[in-house]
């Protein structure tokens, strides 16, 4: 079923890995300013989010920035710097910033989906095909943080989320090579841009959240 011109409920798909204080602020703003248009939020995999938007199952999506379909409009909302997540007693804490070479001396807990293509390519080049140095692949930040805290390896995630999880037993260190960024984007079908004023109002509120 396609998107109606005046949806009574906005069906919002949220991809794994984008839950953030900014998203909470956006949803609170929507509820305060337009309570007559409630949000039905569903957490889905990134690929299911894109397919669901194309098929008309969702009105809007909030996802990790990256390649999308030509049938979708993408609007960058927020971005955060990527950093290293290391255990609380790691020798890496002797460094104010950690190089990828130093980081990859420890088992890597890789994230999925790839949150930064440029960083992923550098890591793969340093690994040189040696997958024995990859401890496991994590489908969520929570699993990655748990494994890092337990000493199974190190990971890379958004700086903000690592800092929020410090009570779990993980510590953030900047990447010495410089800033790599993860973006969060608002996605909507191109056909919905003019069809539903409620969708446009939600997009305007999203742009106002910093």
Determine the fraction of residues in helical runs and give it as a percent range.
25-40%
- Report the top-level CATH class of the largest domain: Alpha Beta
Average pLDDT reading: 85
What is the CATH architecture assignment of the largest domain?
A: 3-Layer(aba) Sandwich
Structural class, by secondary structure, is alpha/beta
Question: Which fold name corresponds to the CATH topology of the largest domain?
Answer: D-Maltodextrin-Binding Protein, domain 2
How large, in whole angstroms, is the Cα Rg?
19 Å
What does this protein look like?
- By secondary structure, this protein is of the alpha/beta class.
- The chain has helices spanning about 20-35, 45-55, 100-105, 115-125, 140-150, 160-165, 190-195, 195-210, and strands at about 10-15, 40-45, 60-65, 70-85, 110, 135-140, 155-160, 170-175, 180-190.
- It folds into 2 domains: about 10-80 and about 185-210, Periplasmic binding protein-like II (D-Maltodextrin-Binding Protein, domain 2); about 80-180, 3-Layer(aba) Sandwich (D-Maltodextrin-Binding Protein, domain 2), CATH 3.40.190.
- Strands 1, 2, 3, 4, 7, 8 and 9 form a 7-stranded mixed beta sheet that branches. It has a two-stranded parallel ribbon with strand order 5-6.
- Strand 1, helix 1 (about 20-35) and strand 2 (about 40-45) form a beta-alpha-beta unit.
């Amino acid at each position: 079923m396609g998107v109606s011109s005046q949806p009574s409920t906005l069906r919002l798909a949220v991809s794994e890995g984008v839950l953030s204080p900014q998203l909470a602020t956006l949803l609170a703003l929507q509820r305060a300013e337009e309570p007559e248009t409630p949000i039905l939020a569903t957490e889905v995999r990134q690929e299911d989010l894109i397919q669901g938007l194309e098929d008309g199952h969702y009105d809007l999506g909030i996802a990790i920035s990256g390649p999308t379909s030509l049938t979708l409009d993408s609007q960058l909302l927020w971005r955060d710097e990527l950093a290293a997540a290391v255990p609380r007693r790691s020798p890496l804490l002797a460094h104010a910033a950690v190089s990828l070479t130093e980081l990859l001396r420890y088992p890597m807990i890789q994230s999925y989906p790839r949150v930064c293509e440029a960083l992923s390519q550098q890591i793969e080049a340093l690994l040189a095909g040696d997958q024995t140095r990859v401890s496991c692949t994590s489908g969520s930040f929570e699993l990655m943080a748990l494994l890092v805290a337990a000493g199974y390896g190190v990971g890379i995630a958004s700086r903000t989320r690592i800092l929020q999880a410090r009570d779990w037993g993980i510590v953030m260190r900047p990447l010495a090579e410089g800033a790599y960024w993860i973006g969060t984007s608002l996605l909507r079908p191109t056909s919905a841009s003019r069809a539903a004023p409620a969708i446009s109002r939600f997009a305007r509120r999203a742009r106002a959240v910093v």
